[in-house]
Amino acid sequence: MNCAIIQEYREKVLSHAQYEVIEDEEPYYGEVPGLAGVYATGRSLEECRENLKHVIEGWILVRREHNLAVESIFRKAGLAEEEVKEVF
Q1: How far is CA 68 from CA 20, 43, 44, in A?
Q2: Does 1 have pLDDT greater than 60?
Q3: Bridge-partner residues for 39, per DSSP?
Q4: Alpha-carbon torsion angle 21, 24, 30, 32, nearest 10
Q5: Alpha-carbon distance 76 to 23, whole Å?
Q6: Given strand 28-31, what is the order of strands in its sheet?
Q7: Is 84 exposed, middle or buried (0-12, 13-18, 19+ CB in 10 A)?
Q8: Hey, what CATH topology would domain 3-87 get?
Q9: Measuring CA to CA, which residue among 21, 64, 10 is closest to residue 45?
Q10: What pLDDT digit, counting tens, does each position of 8-59 carry?
Q11: How far apart are CA 58 and CA 38, in angstroms?
């Protein structure tokens, strides 16, 4: 899986992220529903979004490295069948 594909996949997943403001030193919290452990925080919404990009990339790489399914998990996150096929 090359970097361009990972980045494209990341952007599709990132479009499904949800954000909220929490009481914390880094008050912006973002997560991708349906993807356990895929969340990030930041001092601003943009910082949170950038941090979440790195988390998503890491999640994809770890799952692929361990031969774990990626496509079915992303369908659970709300990507349509055709969106997943576009990337793979």
Answers
A1: 30, 33, 33
A2: no
A3: 31
A4: -120
A5: 29
A6: 18-21, 28-31, 39-42
A7: middle
A8: Double Stranded RNA Binding Domain (3.30.160)
A9: 21
A10: 788 888 988 999 999 999 999 999 988 889 999 999 999 999 999 999 999 8
A11: 9
User: How far apart, in whole angstroms, are the C-alpha atoms of residue 14 and residue 52?
Assistant: 8
Residue 83 φ/ψ region, left for φ over 0, alpha for ψ in the -120 to 50 degree band, beta for the rest: alpha
Residue type, 1: M
Q: Look up residue 68 and give its two tokens.
A: 């774990």
- In this prediction the pTM is 0.78
Burial class (CB in 10 A: 0-12, 13-18, 19+), 15: exposed
Q: Kindly report the number of other CB atoms within 10 A of residue 60's CB atom.
A: 21
Q: What are phi and psi of 41, to 5 degrees?
A: -130, 170
Q: Are 11 and 66 in contact (CB under 8 A)?
A: no
Locus of tokens 């997560």: 31
Q: Give the pLDDT score at 55.
A: 96
